[in-house]
Write a structure and sequence with these properties.
The protein has 225 residues and is an alpha+beta fold. 40% of the residues lie in helices and 25% in strands. The protein has an eight-stranded antiparallel β-sheet, sandwiched between helices. The longest helix has 28 residues. The protein is globular, with a radius of gyration of 17 Å.
C-alpha cells in the first residue's frame, strides 16, 4: 500500500491505493470545497529517519501539514525548526506550537531507539539504495466533529505497518514486517506513547491550530495571493 494513502478526510478504505501526492490534493479539495457548516480538518506529521546514518547526516527530519498546507519542517541534525508557509508563521505564535515541537523531538528520539528493531535485510530491496524509516502520524476531524488518529510506518513510500490507537491493533501491510509487528505488539511503552500522542496531543494541536487559524480572518486571502 502506498505510504500516506490513508491520510484522508474520507474513510481510509475508500482512499486505499492512492499515492501521497494525489491524497494530499484530494484532502485540500475536500477541505476547501466543504460547506461552511462542515468543519473538517487534517493534521499530519511525517518523519524520515535514516536506518544507516553516515557522518553528518541528520537522524530525523519531520514535515508538518495542516489541511495539506506544509507549515513546518524540523531537522534534528541542526535542531532547527522552519516555518514553511504563512500558516506556519501564524501558528508559531501559539503556546501549542512550543508543546508540539517538544513532543515531535521526543517522538523522534523514540523512533531512533526503535530503529535497531528493524532488520534492513527484511525491508530493503536490492538496488533500492539507502533505507529510511518513514513514520506518519495523522489526525482527522470529520464532518460529524469526531477526531480520530492513526500511525503508519513504511519505507520508500510503501507502508509495512499501521497502528490503530483506539484498539491498540497493529495491521501488517507487508509480510516482511511480521517479526517487527510481533515485537512492537509486546512493547507496552511504545504503544502507550503512540496512543498518547495520537489520541491526546495531536487532537489537541489540531483543535488549537484550527481555532487560531479561524481567528486570523485574513489567512485564506493571504494564502491565495
Amino acid at each position: 500500500m502506498a505510504f500516506g494513502s490513508k491520510t484522508s478526510l474520507a474513510p481510509p478504505k475508500l482512499m486505499a491505493g492512492l499515492g501521497p501526492t494525489l491524497t494530499l490534493l484530494l484532502v485540500s479539495l475536500l477541505v476547501r470545497a466543504a460547506p461552511a457548516d462542515i468543519d473538517i480538518h487534517s493534521l499530519c506529521y511525517t518523519y524520515k529517519i535514516p536506518l544507516e546514518s553516515s557522518s553528518g547526516q541528520p537522524w530525523c527530519d519531520v514535515q508538518g501539514q495542516l489541511d495539506a498546507d506544509n507549515f513546518l519542517s524540523y531537522d534534528s541534525g541542526s535542531d532547527t525548526v522552519k516555518n514553511m508557509s504563512i500558516l506556519g508563521v501564524i501558528l508559531s505564535a501559539t503556546e501549542t506550537w512550543k508543546d508540539q515541537i517538544e513532543m515531535l523531538k521526543e517522538a523522534g528520539n523514540l523512533f531512533r531507539q526503535s530503529c535497531p528493531d528493524i532488520k534492513l535485510e527484511n525491508l530493503a530491496d536490492r538496488g533500492a539504495g539507502s533505507v529510511c524509516l518513514q513514520v506518519m502520524l495523522t489526525c482527522q476531524r470529520i464532518s460529524s466533529g469526531n477526531i480520530y488518529g492513526f500511525w503508519e510506518f513504511g519505507r520508500n513510500g510503501q507502508i509495512f505497518l499501521t497502528f490503530r490507537p483506539e484498539s491498540e491493533k497493529w495491521e501488517m501491510e507487508h509480510s516482511r514486517a511480521k517479526s517487527l509487528k510481533e515485537k512492537w505488539e509486546k512493547d507496552s511503552d511504545l504503544i502507550k506513547f503512540l496512543k498518547k500522542m495520537s489520541m491526546g496531543d495531536c487532537k489537541r494541536w489540531l483543535k488549537a491550530f484550527v481555532e487560531h487559524q479561524d481567528r486570523n480572518g485574513n489567512y485564506e486571502r493571504r494564502r491565495k495571493q
